[in-house]
Amino acid sequence: MTTTALGIPRRLLEFTIDGEPVRAPEGSTILDACRAAGTDVPTLCEGDTLRPRNACRVCVVEVEGSRTLVPACSRKAEGGMEVRTGTERVRHSRKIVLELLASSVDLSTTPRVREWIKEYGAEPGRFGADAGRVNEAPRVDNDLYVRDSGKCILCYKCVDACGDQWQNSFAISVAGRGFDARIAVEHDAPLTESACVYCGNCIEVCPTGALSFKSEFDMRAAGTWDEDRQTETTTVCAYCGVGCNLTLHVQDNEIVKVTSPHDNPVTHGNLCIKGRFGYQHVQNRN
C-alpha cells in the first residue's frame, strides 16, 4: 500500500488579481497565485527550484497601497491584497527592462522573449548602434558545456545552484562591477582549473542559453539543432541506486542532452556528472 504525505494544511488567503477574486495557500507568492489563476506574468530570473533573487524585474506587478512596483516572484500574497498585472505602469516597466536586456545581450535562445518584446512593444534598437553590448566569444574550454557571457543577464541562478542552495561547490560567482560584471570562476581561470565538478546544474537553471551543453552548442553552430524534431523520454539513471530521474532529449535517434524533472522528489532537477553527461555509452554502436 502506498501512502502520500499530505503535509500541514495551509490557510487559504483571499485577494484579487486584476479585479477577479482568487484564493491561494498562505505562503504563496503573487507569481504562484497568478499562475494558478491562469494569468501570464513574464519572468526570467525566477526558478522553481531556487529562492527568488529579484534580479530581472520582468515580473513586476502593481499592488494597491505600494509606492513601487513589486516583484511577483518574491512578494508573498496577503489577504485582501489587490494585484494588477497589466496596468500602463506595469507594461511600461516591463518594456524598458526588455529593451535594456535585449540591447545589451543576445537573447536569441531565451524562451518566449521574442513574444514578450512584441507584446510590450519593446524596441531594443532605439538605443542606437553605440549601445553597450556584451560582445564576448563563447568559452569552450571543456567537452561538456560552454559558457557564453554574451547571453548572460546576470540572474544569479547558476551561482545559487552551484552554491549553498544545491551543489555547494561554490565554483562560480560574480566578478567585476557595473557593466563589467561577469559570471566567472576563481581568478577567471579556465573551467577545467576551477572547483567545478561538472554536475551541470547551472545549465539546468540558466534561462537564456548562456550555459549550454557542448552538444547543443555544436549543433546550433552547424544549424542542425531542431527542438521541433526532438522527443523527450523520462527514465531512471542506471549509474547508482539513488534513483535520479533523467529526461533524455533525442533528435534523429541520438541523445543530444539530458535534463531532470524539477518536480521529482529525488533530484528536484539536479544531477551529478554521470547522470547529466554520461550518456555516450547508450549510443556507442561500434
TrEMBL record:
Residues 187-216 form the 4Fe-4S ferredoxin-type domain. SMART domains: Molybdop_Fe4S4 (SM00926). PROSITE patterns: 2FE2S_FER_2 (PS51085), 4FE4S_FER_1 (PS00198), 4FE4S_FER_2 (PS51379), 4FE4S_MOW_BIS_MGD (PS51669), MOLYBDOPTERIN_PROK_1 (PS00551). Residues 230-286 form the 4Fe-4S Mo/W bis-MGD-type domain. SUPFAM superfamilies: 2Fe-2S ferredoxin-like, 4Fe-4S ferredoxins, Formate dehydrogenase/DMSO reductase, domains 1-3. Keywords: 4Fe-4S, Iron, Iron-sulfur, Metal-binding. Gene3D superfamilies: 3.10.20.740, 3.30.70.20, ADC-like domains. It comes from the Bacteria. InterPro entries: 2Fe-2S_ferredoxin-like_sf (IPR036010), 2Fe-2S_ferredoxin-type (IPR001041), 4Fe4S_Fe-S-bd (IPR017896), 4Fe4S_Fe_S_CS (IPR017900), Mopterin_OxRdtase_4Fe-4S_dom (IPR006963), MopterinOxRdtase_cofactor_BS (IPR027467), PSI_iron-sulfur_center (IPR050157). Residues 11-89 form the 2Fe-2S ferredoxin-type domain. PANTHER family: HYDROGENASE SUBUNIT, PHOTOSYSTEM I IRON-SULFUR CENTER-RELATED. This is 2Fe-2S iron-sulfur cluster-binding protein. The lineage of its organism: Bacteria, Bacillati, Actinomycetota, Actinomycetes, Kitasatosporales.
